[in-house]
Amino acid sequence: MLKVNPVKKVQGVITVPGDKSISHRGVMLGSISKGKSIITGFLLGEDCLSTIKCFRQLGVEVNQQGNRIEVIGRGTNGLMEPNDVLDAGNSGTTMRLMSGILAGQDFMSVVTGDGSLRKRPMARVSVPLREMGATIDGRENGKLAPLVIRGGNLKGIDYKLPVSSAQVKSAVLLAGIYADGVTKVTEKVQTRDHTERMLKSFGGNINCEDGYITVKRSELEGQEVEVPGDISSAAFFMVAAAAREGSHLVIKNVGLNPTRTGIIDVLMNMGADITLDNIRSSGGEEIGDIVIKGKKLQGTNITKEIIPRLIDEIPVIAVAASMAEGTTRITGAEELKFKESNRITATVDELKKLGVNIKELPDGMEIVGPNKIGGGTVESYDDHRIAMAMAICGLFAEEPVAINDSHCIAISFPEFEDKLKAITE
Ligand code: S3P
Known about the structure:
The chain has helices at 20-31, 46-57, 92-102, 123-131, 139-142, 166-176, 194-201, 231-242, 262-269, 314-323, 343-353, 384-395, 416-424, and strands at residues 2-4, 11-15, 33-40, 61-65, 68-74, 86-87, 108-112, 135-138, 144-150, 158-160, 183-186, 205-209, 212-216, 220-221, 224-226, 248-255, 273-282, 285-293, 301-302, 326-330, 357-361, 364-369, 376-378, 401-403. The model has no long low-confidence stretch (mean pLDDT 98). Strands 3, 4, 5, 14 and 15 form a five-stranded mixed beta sheet that branches. It is 30% helix and 28% strand. The structure holds shikimate-3-phosphate (S3P). Shikimate-3-phosphate (S3P) is lined by residues 21, 92-93, 165-167, 170, 191-192, 311-312, 335.
């Protein structure tokens, strides 16, 4: 159980751990490349460790020294049939992206996950991967894990993403590097593009156009990947600083890929004082420092076009909205129901317990503020982002807030508690 005490302001200069999406992709692309890949700043969260474990089971040598990871690639066709079930743990990214790679392999693998992941929708990957030629079975005919995948002999498809999901897009693109012909993926709203950028830097045959991506059979070469700080982890502290007058926080070396920076746009729309500094680029990804000064925030309207750029940040945006003056309406966010928990219900129910004027909408939520936030005990639903959002809410409360089952924070941010202490002392 994590107990958070109220504070008057937050301050300091911190870093956050490596980007989860980029860390997963570094191990996956490194595994199917020729030669060695070195990944620095790797996120040692449980999700990314699940990816390492799975690729070791597929025959890949992965050496770890702190957050420096060395992957001895086996080339596109060098993975080996695993002799046991591959366990993606809590990680949707591991299961869905790895399924794309497994669809290209001429062997059988079984992929499972924890109780939460086994409830999450998998038809979104099994349908297009079957269309490409993979044989995929699973509970409820491939709608739920465990999934059984026998791959090989793929052909390119022209796929229009029915849901805005980078995981689904990535699964199809990764299968595309094993397929005959061209694989084309079209998306209505752009989702995070780390797979595209990293495939390009590993020498993949990929082209990104406005609204669609094409990929062809590719041979990849191992690379060095510098993982920037995860903006989705930085988001918790950005809100902690932005919504409290007198705060002054610098978060250094954060990934600023424009497909991920919706949180900055939204906080600035709410009147936050945020500046970006030392912007540079590495491995095809923008990196910089985020400087936040606390101010009184205003409510805002968040609609479906921006949702993919801040999908993981909505629980903590709801916390910012609780402190802001006026109404914040979040719509077009139904995908939140299919995350590690139903994040719409979880956010609404738990913030309500702390006295926030918040109501659930069919595809989002509405918050009226500012609120006097009370103390108490809230649930995490075993969802790391719910646990951390509630912890940030605790900073703004009048009494301590306790978060039950907070161990799940280690999924994406094992050092969260230490960093929180560092900026509140
Ligand atoms: C991710 C994509 C998003 C995000 C998840 C990581 C990725 O999921 O919520 O935390 O690394 O591709 P969806 O693509 O399912 O929206």
